[in-house]
Amino acid sequence: MKASVFHQHGGPEVLKYEDVPEPKPGSRDVVIQVKAAGCNYNDLWARQGLPGMKFDLPHISGSDAAGVVKEIGSEVTSVKVGQEVVVHPAISCRICEACTRGQEYFCRYFKIWGFQTGPLDGAHAEYARIPEANAVPKPARLSWEEAASIPLVLLTAWHMLVTRARLLPGEDVLVWGAGSGIGSIAIQIGKLIGARVIAVAGTDAKCEKAKALGADHVINHASQDVVGEVRKITNKKGVDVVFEHVGQATWERSIATMNWGGRLVICGNTTGFEAKTDLRFLFNKQLSLLGSHQGSKAELLEGLRLVEAGKIKPVVDRVIPLKDAAEAQRLMESRAQFGKLVLVP
Ligand SMILES: [Zn+2]
Hints:
Helix content is 28%, strand content 26%. By secondary structure, the protein is of the alpha/beta class.
């Protein structure tokens, strides 16, 4: 089969579109024919390599796939050949205390599929192997491209806002990176909960699109002072929840925009991981700083029900042939998109 593979870490040029053996299912695995696969920031991190993290090479990236089940292992009972599925992109043992509590992300065997798995084994290929437990019915109303764009960002944003920050109706939430895949979903979850959403993006065009997705207010961080604008919008109160995934470049402003008793929830750091926190704000204002890492299969299913109901919409910026995966990664690095980039074999 054809796949987008890298054999060594480096720039987008290390991605090769080449022939690799088709995956074979283990007894509890299924193999899907990939109809479409989403791009995520972790594709870039794996390809670049991360200090202190070992990747098994050669590696196929891609944590989001939608496709048709082509082959099932001998002990698979819940999935049938021909079924249309998307991938729950978290591998865990499903036996331990954390897993059986519905907190797979605390499992000692937890891995993000397509990021920490390997050698090979991700979505950016014609076929992909996943454990039976990770095959989730594809929302029928979505196209392949839409379906492939949504699981990882939906799961991550849902866990952040619903489970970790416990965002409430009537609260104010600040969403950084409104043009990113995860930002475009966070805006919609915030509105569904009944919060007032203040979205931040880097261009006026992205701000307009964030508004169209339901954001009540938008701030262009390239031309406006985010902290000052939040103070104006909230009448000096500050926001109750900050949705963070940018990290170093935004952290101090995030803290400065928070209401007394506010919660900041963070799932990543696309601009760096060293950030300064003025502890006086932390204790005086009784702030909560909440880490978040992916989510459970149950949370993905909850979110997908709202997708199926048409209440959360995938935001696909563009669809790109799988052979041009390197080009897709260059686009992501330049933050040229609004929403998700999707690859099709
Ligand atoms: Zn476990």
